[in-house]
Amino acid sequence: MAALGWLTPRRRSATARSVLAGEASAEAARKSTQDLPAPESAGEPDFPVHGDDRAAAFFDLDNTVMQGAALFHFGRGLYKRKFFETRDLARFAWQQAWFRLAGIEDPEHMQDARDSALSIVKGHRVSELKSIGEEIYDEYMAERIWPGTRALAQAHLDAGQKVWLVTAAPVEIAQVIARRLGLTGALGTVAESVDGVYTGKLVGEPLHGPAKAEAVRALAAAEALDLTRCAAYSDSHNDIPMLSLVGHPYAINPDSKLRRHARQLDWRLRDYRTGRKAAKVGIPAAAGVGAVAGGTAAAIALHRRRGQSL
Known about the structure:
Blueprint: H1 16-33, E1 56-60, H2 70-80, H3 86-102, H4 107-121, H5 126-141, H6 147-158, E2 162-170, H7 171-180, E3 185-189, E4 191-194, E5 197-202, H8 210-222, E6 231-234, H9 240-243, E7 248-252, H10 256-265, E8 268-270, H11 275-280, H12 291-309
Parallel strand pairs: 1-2, 1-6, 2-3, 6-7, 7-8
Antiparallel strand pairs: 4-5
Helix pairs in contact: 1-8, 2-3, 2-5, 3-12, 5-7
């Protein structure tokens, strides 16, 4: 892939693979939205500022916009379509259950899931995975969108601003989710393909941590955005590099490290996970993630309650 000439100089260090992943994701995002009409304005909230076309919003996906991890839900959908075997589904289910209980990203779990996904899609056509992604969104993801975070994204759209998902999930899946939510587009991990067929390799590295910041920086340069006027939303301390780029960072359903960091810097916080807040936004506090994952989560929760009562 040719290098992108519009990437601005970086003030901090980043690995070459992070830069490549960020550039590839930004390029894929721009290509997917070149022909989309601008969102209609429907209000003028105090923030975001109505009509500020040099501002945009960047939303992390997993546990920020959606409960759980998109990659795990995608894996369940592929299993249903016999892309892999039962033992692989059990691993996906356990990782998903752990993710929901802990509320943070475990690097080993995420790496294992990415490696599995790459091996599974190798040799398949990109068009096939895009079509399947539409079905999987309806089956596993649509009911897991946080209404509170969705409302924040809509506020930016109503102000006439572009809204992008920024996620380590495959860019094809991220684009499906963004389109279904009415967002502008998505920055995601770019898997290498030749003649429309996946090779089983990545372009650069997964769009995670510093790579997300690189993607946002590249997209902002290409779109002539002023990052000091932009907003970013995430649940994970891994996204502090991305959050630190913008003038309006938000910690959404934050893990403990991000919550502590956000409080130190006086960043705004929103949490939609508690039973009371979940009820207010119409989300079941103990929504299932499938029979295997749900059973695992319930067993762990019961074990914890018993331990606390001793």
